[in-house]
Amino acid sequence: MSDEPPAVRLEGITKTFGDVVANEDVDFTLERGEVHALLGENGSGKTTLMSVLYGLYDQDEGTIYVDGEPRSFDSPQDAMGAGIGMIHQHFQLVPPMTVLQNVVLGNEPTRNGLIDEGAARERIEGICSRYGFDVDRHLDTPIEELDLGTRQRVEIVKTLYRGAEVLVFDEPTAVLTPQEVDGLMGLLEDLRDAGRSIVFISHKLDEVLAAADRITVLRDGRAIGTVNAAETAEGELARMMIGRDVLFERLSRETTPGEPVLEVEELRVDGDRGLERVTDVSFTVREREILGIAGVQGNGQTELAEALTGLRPVESGTIRFQGTEITDTGRRQRIEEGIAYVPEDRQTEGLVQRYDLVRNALLGNQTVAPYSMDGWLNWPRVSEHAETIVREFDVQTSGMGADATSLSGGNQQKFIVGREIGHDPELLIASHPTRGVDIGSIEFIHNRLLELRDEGLGIVVVSSKLDEVQKLSDRIAVMYDGEFIDTVDPDVVTEEELGLLMAGHGPEDDPTGNDPDTEAKL
Amino acid sequence: MSDGASDPGRVRTALDRAADRILDASVYERVGIAVGSTGLALLIGLVIVALAGYDPLRFATQLVVGSFGSERAFARTLQFTTLFILAGVAVAIAFRAGVFNIGVQGQLIVGGIACVLAIVWLAPYVPDGRIGGTGLVAVGLFASVVAGGLYAALPGALKAYYGANEIITTIMLNFVAIGVVGWAVDGPLRPDDARSVRTEYLPDNVGFPQLLFEYPSFSLVGLGLALVVVVAISVVATRTSFGYDMMTSGYQLRAATYSGVDARRMIVQTMTLSGMVAGLVGAVFAIMVQGYFIDPSGLGTYGFDAIAVSLLAANNPIGVVPAALLFGALDSASSHVQIHSEVPVQLIDGIVGLVVLFVAAPELFRMIAERTGLGGDRR
Amino acid sequence: MSLAELSARRGVRLGGLALVAVLAVGTTLVAAFDVPLERIVTVGFVNRALLAASPIALAAIGGLYAEKSGVFNIGLEGFMIFGAVTAAAALYGLGGTDPTQWHVWAAVVTAVAFSVLLTAGYAVLLIRYKADQIVAGLAVWFMGLGFAPFAASLIWGTVRSPGLTRVTQYSLPYLGEVPVVGPILFQQSPFVVITAVVVVAAWVVLYRTRYGYWIQAAGDNPEALDTAGVNVNRVRYATVIFSGVMAGLGGAVLLAHAGNFIGTGDTMVDGRGWIAIVAYLFGNYNPLGAAAAALLFGGLDMLQVQFQTADIAVSGRLMGLAPYIGVIVVLTVWGKTRMPASVGEPYETEE
User: Fold this and answer.
1) What is the pLDDT of residues C248-282, one digit of tens each?
2) Using the beta-carbon criterion (under 8 Å), do C228 and A97 form an inter-chain contact?
């Protein structure tokens, strides 16, 4: 390495939000002209760390050095002024404005008071030819008519136009198609070769290995270590990312699944933008069985859960519930027939924040007896229901009159789980049932789910936490890019193997994989 | 709840009380904003009166006398209150469910003309006298509800299924209603012998019975009808599955969808219900106040003022009643001021505008309350 | 790409819709009523349409700017009323019942100055105090409907002013005598010309200057503008005040064309502020489109006069509804309006 100071050095960064420690004493060094990946699971503190660098948050402790000088940024503009640019997951682009207009926004070249389009064009074309971007082909096209990959390149060009030396990419592949991902990888290399320094935030093992020179792994807000990409492998990274110490004890039990409750055949579901997010998924869930669906978030689990619960239309394939086809029935009918759903987003979906607990206890049950008879609500029964949930699920609250907002995340989640299983469903779909929940509540929710299973309920648990699916599931299906790439026996599989599956390495790539019998069960 | 239940129970009640206080505080806050808006608007009005060279004290007295000072004034106040209650509830329904129905004015016009037409057309086939009259009133009310509901369902459906912004479409439909009905009452619906622009008179036996008040344009039955609607809407909103669906959609649409609400259908249903109540305003206006229908451009802006009424009441159907009384009193006072005061009566319209303006900016009052320390604890 | 085609088609569809509407009205007239078109579309008609359109176009330009930047100024109607009554009061105050042309111009300037004050307060309520834009806008209308006739009563004892004076048309020698074009271009109200200048300037500023870029970004993705280092709320203050000033100017021009103030009913503004909103929606937020729509509505308005002179019994009142119905149809056929994404949302910078 040269004698020059690193492009960016973060020293001892600590950042807390209330009681939550997002970053704890993190050191991070970005050398000039390298692609440095910041790897970690959701909530491990990657984005927080980079937001501190970008001036969005003030760190509680620690120092930022840019080119060897200690700096502090009060705003993204400050950071931008020091040559640090960030490419967010949500692009900072104005959809109806053209590419050119977006790139120059805030730094418009003018002549006689009017925008000097010629000068702008020239400068953008210069940047494009220097780094090999094709964005200059679309300069006069409105952003909204471009695909997401091109939009991302516009965002990069915009950042370069503003003079960024350091580019931070926050989960840049989350919105891209596989082909666009390949393109991005090439661009990152070109940028590096042109002397730019790049931070690449990701939770995908294969991507960081493909893109980065060095990789720093974050877990629970701490930097676990930094490795050279050339000297590591996915197995090691997975281990660093997930850690062994948080594994739950897997409970031994006998499995005697009953009749099929849910049968899914060749299901295809589209996402919000019309792209196919679930591809040819088939599976069966029986009574007294928990099917775990593992996978890195954003691989189609959300869309699958919504399709199963009636919140999202199905493009093709069939869903049968207790032998009857329900592919096209609405959400309300499915609730009434006994499909309960613990939604992924408890804040916006699972609870009405400004309702008290009694009114929240009714959410979803407003047409279900005994809370509702012929359209009339039976509030005393709803009240009792709320009290039962609070008592049985040990929800810590000031009372039934408290708004949902006043509950902590864990208690909100316990309340939702309690409500959803409170009226004897036949099938429970639980999406990330313990996300953001404290340890005690996690234990409690897990135990309840296992009890319910033993009582005969069919359960689908969607989770990106390996330890959770391993602990709960009778079978684990791993979802990657919209498909079930494998189904494994949780008693046999190691979390390292699971990690590889979640990174998209199917059993055919990895002969040491799994018991073929488990697969045959599907 | 067997062992040691008493202790946590006591703690819980104490916490309950604390939570209730917080809830109360936000109700107080709402009432505070309403009273503050009205007070500030009236104060500015009086300052303007003084600046214009009149006696503000005298004007203030006339406001009170003109709205509550005599049986006639009081009845007139109640007449306007009745209309504002119904129109305010119509707005509150929609706003509560997160749909901006600015078209209550148009819906009440359509409801009113439908009521008059239904009664006038059916009258020849119905016996004279009390029973026939009551029947016609019922038919008129029914027609207004149906017409108002349909006229509101249209922008609802356009929003739900075509994404057309309901604020714009309902405002446009107001103009359309005023224009078409205005044209009709000046054309095909205008009797040959009519000197002014109007429809046929309603038959003599059609009307609400006079109780207590002698004032011809007000009947307690009308007010009673409005209050029944308030209670009915409150019951629907708080005690039925449909009401729960509606309120939840207004609070948090995604949670409502999660709970099985069909968001699109809900928009149409909400608009329809809102328009049904709005239609009723037109019917009450025709039956109780006017006795026929006039060019709607001269009707009074009940449907627009109702937005202020509803907001003043924080979109709560029960709260609409006192808010409507306030607006009723102001309207009633302006009838008095027009005759008995030198202060140009339009000032009161301006004051109403100020009330609405301040209601639109609750932050203003929060800020004032915080600065002056009057607001007490804030969450 | 199909998206590009779609958006191109959108523009075409909108223009087509307007064209179809005009053609339909025209054909109906000729076919059903056997009207010679040349008796309808006369030079006088075009002039009257331009006079009627200019106040609408001015207010529309203002409203368009505010909405482009993310603030729905639904109070245009109210600001027009205030503009008209202020201009009338100033005209009377300066020149009594016999004011000169200089007084007309001074009155218009006074109305504009007053509008600046009024809208500055309004902008603070909307932006600083995050007032509900719909309700506050309606409030301005109510206030206009109340305070304008109130002021008229204080000044003149009734809600109507006495006859004051109109702005005189300029007339260029020789050029004004050229047939057809002469009377339209060279014998015209100066305010029509000013309106045309404002329209073109508004287009240039919006699409060809940095301020225009900022306005568009403030309405469609304020965060993007903020991260580009431009203060979003400052942009919005500017556009809201501009919108009120343009509406006030529109009201003043209306008065200068009419020559006296009328405060009965919906006042002399009589829905023109609402039409202005419709005009810029119709014009797809493009100043030139908005002006064209204003001209269309001005023409529709003046068509009634033509019908009377041509003895055609079509209700002017029903004809006047065409723009409103047109808007509903456009919103429906077109689906979601090209409304800027962040209209109505107060913008707060992240701390």
Assistant:
1) 999 999 999 999 999 887 889 988 998 898 889 88
2) no
CATH of domain C56-333: 1.10.3470
Most confident residue range from B373-377, C218-222, C244-248: C244-248
Q: With an 8 Å Cβ cutoff, is A92 touching chain B? A: no
Q: What is the DSSP letter of A356?
A: B
DSSP code at position B128:
S
Return mean pLDDT, chain C: 84
A351–B255 CB contact, under 8 Å:
yes
Residue C73 contacts residue C241 (beta carbons within 8 Å): no
pLDDT confidence of residue A308: 95
The model's pLDDT over A260-277, given as tens digits with 9 standing for 90+, comes to 999 999 999 998 767 788
Give residue A203's pLDDT: 77
Residue with the larger pLDDT of the pair B10 and A491: A491
The answer to whether domain A8-242 and domain A246-338+426-522 are alike in fold is yes
Chains interfacing with C (3 or more CB pairs < 8 Å)? A, B
Q: State residue B21's pLDDT score.
A: 43
Question: Least CB-CB distance to B241: which of A310, A348, A372?
Answer: A372
Structure tokens, A329: 């029935």
Q: Which residue of B has its CA nearest to A365?
A: B259
CB proximity A101 to C under 8 Å: yes
Token pair belonging to A171: 């989960």
| Contact flag B344-C139 (C-beta cutoff 8 Å) | no
3 state SS of A190: helix
Measure the CA dihedral A26/A27/A31/A34, to 10°: -40
Alpha-carbon span C44 to C30, nearest angstrom:
20
Q: What percent of chain C has pLDDT over 90?
A: 47
**For A246-338+426-522, CATH number?**
3.40.50.300
> What is the CATH code of the structural domain delimited by A8-242?
3.40.50.300
Q: How many CB atoms lie within 10 A of CB C135?
A: 20
A115 and C214 within 8 Å at the Cβ level: the answer is: no
**Residue-range domains of chain B with CATH:** 1-54+346-379 (no CATH), 61-341 (1.10.3470)
Domain ranges of chain A: 8-242, 246-338+426-522, 347-424
Which one of A94, A115, A144 has the shortest CB-CB distance to C224? Answer: A94
The residue of C81, C118, C135 whose CB has the most chain B CBs within 10 angstroms, and thus the best one to mutate to test that interface, is C135
Q: pLDDT tens for residues C168-198?
A: 888 777 777 777 777 777 778 899 999 999 9
Nearest to C134 among B155, B167, B169 (CB): B167
**Residues in chain A with pLDDT < 70?**
1-3, 19, 42-43, 175, 177-178, 243-255, 273, 436, 439, 507-522
A362–chain B Cβ distance below 8 A for any pair: yes
A196: which 2 tokens?
């730019």
pLDDT number for residue B181? 94
Residue with tokens 């075409």: C12
In terms of average pLDDT, the best of A329-343, B27-41, B330-344 is A329-343
- Please list the residues that pair with A142 across neighbouring strands: A98
Q: Which of residues 302-321 of C touch B (CB under 8 A)?
A: 315, 317-318, 320-321
Work out the widest C-alpha separation in chain A, in whole angstroms: 81
Interchain proximity B361–C132, CB inside 8 Å: yes
Q: Is residue C164 over pLDDT 70?
A: yes
- The residues, ordered by sequence, that sit 6+ positions from B301 with a Cβ below 8 Å of its Cβ are B105, C142, C145
**Nearest beta carbon to residue C129 from set B168, B344, B363:** B363
**Chain B residues close to C265, C-beta within 8 Å:** 297-298
pLDDT at C2: 39
The tally of CA atoms less than 13 A away on the side-chain side of residue C108 is 24
Q: Which of B163, B165, B187 sits opposite C315 (nearest CB)?
A: B187
